[in-house]
């Protein structure tokens, strides 16, 4: 069990800041705020349809650690479509479930298999940093997409034609991008949603999980390969997925109890104890990250106001 380390995808090109030379103003058919998987995919689809697109993200690089670990078949086919021939490089493995277990030592016997996903048997495990790397490379190749990385959205004027005030995060230089349409793909914090005055409807109670991701060979892991195991353990409910990807062998999401000592829970020895029931050979397991994922399910009251649209985690988060 090794400590977490920074993940870098092999072959990722360095994207160097060129803050002082670029122009931060312009008029486009569409401006996309946020270059996560949703924004990058939307930008490529719009550009493929003939639009001139600007995409803005305050980060220079994709988030380097795994986040979502599996997607449904509709999302996967969209990613493949926008990646074209490069889709072959995407690490994927069949995923299924969820199935509910009451005893973490008996992962051969599900209690029930609830039909939470319409396509439960055609999901796929993915490695999100690699997906986002490939999407950003596809954007860079697209002649109709202008990328503004290292640029933060600061103010949105939602007039007949949306105008986005942006700031270069290094130089502090300001500019305005205007467009016929603006897409808020800026994640759960939802800058565009907030600026547009769109309210959230909270769907459930907040919950916190300790997420543990590891490289681990499938033959040393308990349970069914690719399946999302929901373990209704009386002491600590958890979600466990032996994913079978080279980059990401397994994920655990352990429920954190209210008031629990989180730093103590994240100590290496404690993590070793938590994952021990699922791992036959601990020496073959390398922990990539352990992080706390705090989540409140929500959906925005609307996904459109005038020519501003909300997409992805900015408009709903229901996991
Ligand atoms: C540990 C962990 C586990 C997760 N597990 C799951 C899961 O099991 N299921 C699930 O559905 N989701 C999960 N998520 C959430 C997952 O990350 C999202 O579902 C997915 O990344 C959403 O994609 P997105 O493109 O909508 O938003 P994001 O990937 O969040 O991308 C938003 C982008 O907008 C940029 N941005 C934000 N504000 C601004 C601004 N003002 N100016 C410029 N750029 C801005 C950000 O830099 C970011 O690149 C998890 C997240 C974490 C951290």
UniProtKB/TrEMBL annotation:
Pfam families named in the record: FAD_binding_3 (PF01494)
Domain FAD-binding: 28-317
Record-linked SUPFAM superfamilies: FAD/NAD(P)-binding domain (SSF51905)
InterPro entries, sorted: FAD-bd, FAD/NAD-bd_sf, PheA/TfdB_FAD_monoxygenase
GO annotation, biological process: 3-(3-hydroxy)phenylpropionate catabolic process
GO molecular function, one term: 3-(3-hydroxyphenyl)propionate hydroxylase activity
Keywords: Oxidoreductase
Name of the protein this chain belongs to: FAD-binding domain-containing protein
């Amino acid at each position: 069990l090794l400590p977490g380390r920074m993940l870098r995808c092999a072959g990722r090109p360095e994207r160097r800041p060129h803050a002082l030379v670029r122009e931060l103003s312009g008029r486009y058919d569409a401006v996309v705020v946020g270059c996560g998987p949703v924004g990058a995919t939307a930008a490529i689809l719009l550009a493929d349809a003939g639009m001139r697109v600007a995409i803005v993200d305050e980060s220079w690089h994709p988030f380097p650690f795994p986040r979502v670990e599996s997607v449904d078949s509709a999302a996967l086919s969209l990613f493949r479509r926008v990646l074209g021939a490069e889709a072959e490089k995407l690490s994927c493995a069949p995923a299924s479930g969820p199935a509910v277990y009451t005893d973490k030592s008996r992962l051969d016997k599900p209690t029930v298999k609830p039909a939470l996903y319409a396509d439960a048997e055609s999901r796929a495990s993915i490695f999100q940093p690699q997906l986002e790397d490939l999407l950003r490379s596809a954007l860079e190749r697209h002649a109709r997409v202008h990328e503004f990385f290292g640029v933060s959205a600061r103010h949105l004027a939602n007039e007949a034609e949306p105008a986005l005030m942006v700031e270069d995060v290094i130089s502090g230089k300001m500019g305005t991008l205007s467009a016929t349409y603006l897409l808020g793909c800026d994640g759960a914090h939802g800058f565009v949603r907030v600026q547009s005055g769109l309210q959230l409807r909270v769907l459930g109670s907040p919950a916190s999980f300790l997420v543990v991701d590891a490289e681990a060979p499938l033959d040393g892991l308990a349970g069914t390969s690719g399946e999302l195991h929901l373990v209704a353990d009386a002491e600590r409910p958890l979600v466990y997925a032996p994913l079978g990807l080279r980059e990401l062998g397994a994920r655990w999401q352990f429920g954190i109890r209210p008031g629990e000592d989180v730093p103590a829970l994240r100590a290496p020895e404690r993590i070793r104890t938590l994952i021990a029931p699922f791992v036959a050979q601990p020496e073959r397991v390398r922990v990539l990250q352990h992080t706390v994922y705090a989540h409140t399910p929500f959906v925005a009251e609307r996904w459109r106001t005038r020519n501003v649209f909300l997409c992805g985690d900015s408009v709903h988060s229901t996991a």
